Amino acid sequence: MTMQFNDETFRGDYTFRNSAAAIRRFPFPFDRDGYMYSVNIEQHPGGPAGSPFEFAFDVDEHYVAEMKDREITLADDPMRCQSLPHMELAGWDLLELIMVSKARDYPELFKLNRDGNAWHWINRPLGIDKTFTFLDPTTLPCGPMEYITRQAQGDFALLHEREGNLWLDAGMVTSQADWSLDFDVGMNFFEWHAPVPKARKMGVFDKALKFLLAVTQEQSYRRLNWTMTVNPRLDTSPENYHKWGPEKRSITPANVGAKQFLRVELQTFWRLPRSNALAFPIRCYLCNLEDIATQPKWGRRLHRVLRDIDPDLAEYKGFAVNHEVIVDYLAQFDDGAETSPGIFPD
Amino acid sequence: MPNTKFSPSIDSRPTYAGLVSQGAAPGIMVADAAGADALVDLASADSSVMDRAHVLLVGAAADTVSRIEALHPKALHGAPDLEAATPLVKRLLSAARMGTTLYLAGSEGLMGHVAALATAEGLPLEAIQMEHRGTVARRMQCVHCKGITEDVTTDPFTCSHCGLTLFVRDHFSRRLGAFQGVCVDAETPGVVPDAQEIRA
Amino acid sequence: MSKLALKVTEIEALSPLVKRFRFEDPAGAPLPVFSGGAHITVEMPDGDTIRRNSYSLISDPHDGSGYEIAVRREDRGRGGSRYMHTRVNEGDAITVSSPANLFQLDLRARKHVLIAGGIGITPFLSQLRQLGIAQKPYELHYAARSRDEAAGLRLLPDAAHIHVHISDEGARMDLGAILDGQPLGTHVYTCGPEGLISAVADQAARLGWPKTAVHSEAFTAPPPGEPFEVVVKSSGRTVQVKADQSLLEALEAAQVEIDYSCRGGACGRCRTHVIACDGRILHNDHWLSEAERAEQKTIMPCMSRFKGARLELDL
């Protein structure tokens, strides 16, 4: 079956919608009825057929619309994509990883023919047919990282390893949970995460760094992270905070189910072969509360998680002002019944 | 007045360990008027530190210049402000070799700006020493328009480029040599808290 | 760990003591490419144990048609290199790990200075190719006692920025002259005997180089020693470590689950907590600090041994 791509927007009139199938495969991030930071890492790719974990780089019904949204964001602010000079090789590594994976996993959508360094790439959903020379940047319209991440959903960070640390030295970041690539590019792992409350004290980042440094090219990993967003907006950047900020205050008991979205990041970690850099794709999935509640297990659990969450975390994740309305709304889906373990719907 | 002690903060907020002489090895020293005192202290601990030092004073008065002259650095240059000093700093760095130490003293704005220049020229971060003296004013990047506002002393403050009212974060970018300013009334336009003096 | 089942396709003597081996996929499938300075771990089944040694890849990092390594025969070692020299033939099957890199180039460097001693030339052979492809400025200094010891000579291009120092011919390496006056942003990398690594580090420190610009990799394989035994906490079993076996190899032979990567005391992956130690741990790794060594509460089983009455490990 060929995939159908939605014609939808992530700004202005916000016509983004999840189909029933997209709701069922939404990567609900809570495997129990409570939440605190954890490293929660699993091997990737791998997961039930049809789930967003099945393939290296998940392609779903939002692909074409997300790529259009990225194009709008980049046209307005090209600094959302930056690569320090020593990261070009890592950009080629990433391009190869994504092209090879997509051509293998979605042969009806993508095709890659390689004859030495002479490559031919076909991206049917975006109508791209391109021949170029691998490792020769003059044969692409832009740098390799930018070229391929204009064709791949989610944000991308490329981390350079040195001095026992990982440095955020390149990225494509247009759908971030409120952090600025332009400001953070060049930072090490601890500096980049410095604004996250509590986690440093808990040693989360020391453990995470140690884990990431040990990732080898033979095995990749994933974890889920989450936050809350009002309206299905991908560009919740600090750059445009003054533009989208007022929307955060538009939540009412009447509209919260439709306008309040759970925003899930599927983060994956890849050791890149030629550059020995780490690729850190951060794929964003959005689902509003009323769609989440169509899965009874998720409705019950999300109510419990948000009701009991640490207030500092609600503040950091930016939904403290709407916390009460959200929990009141979700209460109607929580009959007190037990929930099954794991993230998948019953 | 010794090296300023700042309150503990997040990991991205720089701390300044103070200047320690690397002896008569090649050195580049950049200081403002307040930072010049740190150079005087450095030389009084070890006068040989000046033997191969190029000193660049930014916005310093004549009496400060003569105090540094009395330390007999290898070369002494002056510049009215950071912008005017930048080409000379770049020139000195381009001629420098491995083993050169960069000594910075004065405001966070000066140190952040010059350290960013130096690392961009290939100087390893560990070859940069810093000592904070004088004003606690900050060099701020507006996250919205990307403009830099120098000498920010209050929180919130007005971006000198786009005019938004920004709050002052401790999040610091070494590459930009600046702290981050974020719109304080983004969610509730017009609701702006009273400005407070920035403190150490 | 996922492994690659390959075939030995070429063996060539580079010098009386050093052989070059080439491995390819038996069906000709491309192998994962890698970065300059990466190594693979080679499995050497020998009776009831599998010995595993890590070797730097010396072939072109962008060429997935095969992997090449160079092995120096160490007759006083615990037998890994002797196995490679005497038991491995062209056409044999051989199992290796995917490449991993603990000695990568800092790609930000304005210039790279590579200093090799003896068989320590190996990681630089792949790095040279990477630097060549990227057209980055570098110079290589290769020191060896004699031309016979300088097995890498045959694999090096003849170029102005490649300097060979043969001490038997009176051409000793002058580290001061090499490091003095290098441009800002230069990084130096050393691979070779401990003495050379510390001499470069000392010289760089004297010239005021920050530690972050000074890199090294010691290419040691686990040393043999006297036999000893360890107790494994989870099962209470006692494991015998033979004279020509590393502790890690003995644990693996006894089916004790333990993580590893470099098998050369450099990556930290096999770090193990010591429950009880009545005796002295012979630390041979480059991972633990002096303080950690003195405490005797952790051991790196890939390299280190034990002498005493009882050693119990948290495994």
TrEMBL record, chain A:
Name listed for the protein in its UniProt record = DUF3445 domain-containing protein
Q: Which InterPro entries match?
A: HODM_asu-like
Give the highest taxon in the source lineage.
Bacteria
Q: One Pfam family, short name please?
A: HODM_asu-like
From TrEMBL, chain B:
The UniProt entry, under InterPro entries, shows:
DmmA-like_C (IPR048037), DmmA-like_N (IPR054582)
Query: The organism sits in which domain of life?
Result: Bacteria
Keyword vocabulary terms for this entry: 2Fe-2S, Flavoprotein, Iron, Iron-sulfur, Metal-binding, Oxidoreductase
One example of the protein's molecular function in GO is: oxidoreductase activity
Q: Which Pfam families match?
A: DmmA-like_C, DmmA-like_N
Stretches assigned to the Dimethylamine monooxygenase subunit DmmA-like N-terminal domain: 9-125
Q: Where is the Dimethylamine monooxygenase subunit DmmA-like C-terminal domain?
A: 139-182
Q: Check the record and name the NCBIfam families matching this protein.
A: mono_DmmA_fam
Which named protein is this? Answer: Uncharacterized protein
From TrEMBL, chain C:
- Which InterPro entries does this entry report, sorted A to Z? 2Fe-2S_ferredoxin-like_sf, 2Fe-2S_ferredoxin-type, Beta-grasp_dom_sf, Cbr1-like_FAD-bd_dom, DmmA-like_N, FAD-bd_FR_type, FNR_nucleotide-bd, MRET
**This protein's superkingdom?**
Bacteria
Gene Ontology MF: a single term: metal ion binding
Span of domain FAD-binding FR-type: 1-106
Q: Give the matching Gene3D superfamilies.
A: 3.10.20.30, Nucleotide-binding domain of ferredoxin-NADP reductase (FNR) module (3.40.50.80), Translation factors (2.40.30.10)
Every copy of the 2Fe-2S ferredoxin-type domain together lies at 228-315
Keywords per UniProt: 2Fe-2S, Flavoprotein, Iron, Iron-sulfur, Metal-binding, Oxidoreductase
Q: Which PANTHER family match?
A: CARNITINE MONOOXYGENASE REDUCTASE SUBUNIT, NADH OXIDOREDUCTASE HCR
Which named protein is this?
A: Ferredoxin-NADP reductase
UniProt organism field: Salipiger thiooxidans
